[in-house]
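Regression test case RT-17, inverse folding.

Input:
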């Protein structure tokens, strides 16, 4: 795994270096005037691919309006017309003999000054009364009507650019969240992160088709004239995924475990709608879109209700579901009420609410990641900690000792250890009971920890045996310290207040040898020294031969 990561890093660095030093990326050469510049591209004979308003195109644009000239005729100043929120087909803008057509799913067919809509700048003669004509395809459903913006070129172009920035920013956020979730999956192997990444990808594609960015700067999805079918199919899938996530976030599965089967059926039903959408006629497609909207609104309302109940019952994690569902439900209600602001900025409002949903879901996902990390830390702590005394167990202690051995050998510093065994501990258990034996172990552990600067340097090896790590101490200093610890152990019994109880310990001392020594040999010498202390009469420190 480590080798693979290093190879990947080396490959990335090689690609970066090739990009920096490739001949085509060389610095610009000074010109005769002494100025430095970089000229890219080349002259072309390609014409701007503005779509011609052919009779076939015009037949598909039955919806038409005329923007009349103001009283007294046009002023002679340039007039800009920008048409956006077109969710089906093309747009035609005409004034006098000049006429252009543009398609939202192919930015190459539109005036480059307008990227969030189809626009044109005209300069009517002063006093002229010729109207500006606009035509478009029938809307996908009621109230999903285009917005026609008329005004001075500069403000309109700036507003159009702002809409484009909002749309692209929402796509960029979805992409970043998807990549972040993928990294979370690689780090945790939790499939929830992978599911969230797929959700981000689905909503990203749906937003791209909805906003026309699937055709910017040129088509990267085969949408074209099939945009209505794409929108309905992707919306059915998005609604299924979003309702499923919202139900989980609001605590629906915890409050109503029996709802799991119903949620699964709804998801499969909406997925079936998405699969069948390409074969539906436009009127039927509009009906299906309306139905999906109603189902989604009802689902958001149900999510909100369950979320409130969960919060009342102190499941505060359900706040995530409420916060994510509220903007979506508000948007649906505003649509039903025919809110003018929503009609004018429908695409941006939809994308912003979906982005908010993804951000809240990402927040919930990050909290899940935090819980996973805490659980991992708790499991690691349990795996490396003695439950009774709270000291590092044998596994953790040996790993710490190995680290000290490596550091001592690398820096040629002293290292000593003490192997402590409580004297006659079996007799304590037999005479006073195992509960008192446990009290003795805890009291001895506390006495040892209180006398050392680092709690991790006292290890319970098992039973009544403790390992004491003394990094940086030579044999003489270690012997003094271990003698102090032995004396502290003898005072343990007084604090326990059991008649006749005496607690002593035999300690074996060993130091790391200058060369040819390892952890196993060090432990073996300390263990042998401890048994020598017992044979010598117990309650003493015995140093192993150097």
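Golden output:
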């Amino acid at each position: 795994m480590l080798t693979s990561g290093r190879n990947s890093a080396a490959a990335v660095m090689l690609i970066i270096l090739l990009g920096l030093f490739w001949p085509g990326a060389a610095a610009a050469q000074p010109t005769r005037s002494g100025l430095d510049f970089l000229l890219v591209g080349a002259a072309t004979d390609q014409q701007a691919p503005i779509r011609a308003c052919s009779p076939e195109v015009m037949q598909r644009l039955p919806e038409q309006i005329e923007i009349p000239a103001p009283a007294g005729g046009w002023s002679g100043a340039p007039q800009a017309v920008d048409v956006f929120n077109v969710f089906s087909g093309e747009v035609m803008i005409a004034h006098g003999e000049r006429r252009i057509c543009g398609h939202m799913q192919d930015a190459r067919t539109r005036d480059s000054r307008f990227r969030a809509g189809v626009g044109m700048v005209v300069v009517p003669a002063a006093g002229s009364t010729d109207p500006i004509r606009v035509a478009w395809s029938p809307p996908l459903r009621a109230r999903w009507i285009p917005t026609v913006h008329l005004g001075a070129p500069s403000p309109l172009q700036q507003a159009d650019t702002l809409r484009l920035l909002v749309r692209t920013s929402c796509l960029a956020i979805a992409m970043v969240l998807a990549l972040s979730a993928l990294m979370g999956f690689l780090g945790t192997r939790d499939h929830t992160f992978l599911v969230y990444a797929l959700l981000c990808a689905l909503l990203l594609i749906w937003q791209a088709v909805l906003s026309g960015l699937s055709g910017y700067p040129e088509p990267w999805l085969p949408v074209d004239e099939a945009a209505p079918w794409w929108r309905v199919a992707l919306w059915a899938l998005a609604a299924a995924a979003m309702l499923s996530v919202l139900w989980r976030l609001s605590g629906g599965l915890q409050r109503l475990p029996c709802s799991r089967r119903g949620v699964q059926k709804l998801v499969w039903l909406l997925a079936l709608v998405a699969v069948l959408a390409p074969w539906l006629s436009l009127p039927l497609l509009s009906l299906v879109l309306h139905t999906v909207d109603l189902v989604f609104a009802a689902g958001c309302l149900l999510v909100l209700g369950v979320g409130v109940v969960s919060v009342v019952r102190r499941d505060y994690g359900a706040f995530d579901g409420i916060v994510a569902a509220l903007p979506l439900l508000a948007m649906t209600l505003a649509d039903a009420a025919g809110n003018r602001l929503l009609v004018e900025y429908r695409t941006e409002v939809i994308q912003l609410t979906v982005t908010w949903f993804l951000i809240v879901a990402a927040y919930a996902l990050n909290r899940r990641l935090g819980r996973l990390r805490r659980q991992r830390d708790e499991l690691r702590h349990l795996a490396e900690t003695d439950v009774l005394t709270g000291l590092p167990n044998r596994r953790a202690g040996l790993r710490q000792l190995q680290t000290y051995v490596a550091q001592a050998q690398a820096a040629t510093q002293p290292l000593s250890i003490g192997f402590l065994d409580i004297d006659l501990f079996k007799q304590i258990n037999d005479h006073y009971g195992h509960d008192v034996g446990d009290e003795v172990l805890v009291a001895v552990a506390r006495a040892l920890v209180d006398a050392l600067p680092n709690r991790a340097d006292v290890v319970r090896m098992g039973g009544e045996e403790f390992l004491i790590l003394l990094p940086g101490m030579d044999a003489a200093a270690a012997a003094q310290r271990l003698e102090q610890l032995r004396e502290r152990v003898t005072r343990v019994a007084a604090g326990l207040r059991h008649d006749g109880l005496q607690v002593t310990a035999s300690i074996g001392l060993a130091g790391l040898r200058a060369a040819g020594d390892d952890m196993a040999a060090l432990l073996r010498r300390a263990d042998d020294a401890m048994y020598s202390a017992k044979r010598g009469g117990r309650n003493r420190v015995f140093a192993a031969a150097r």
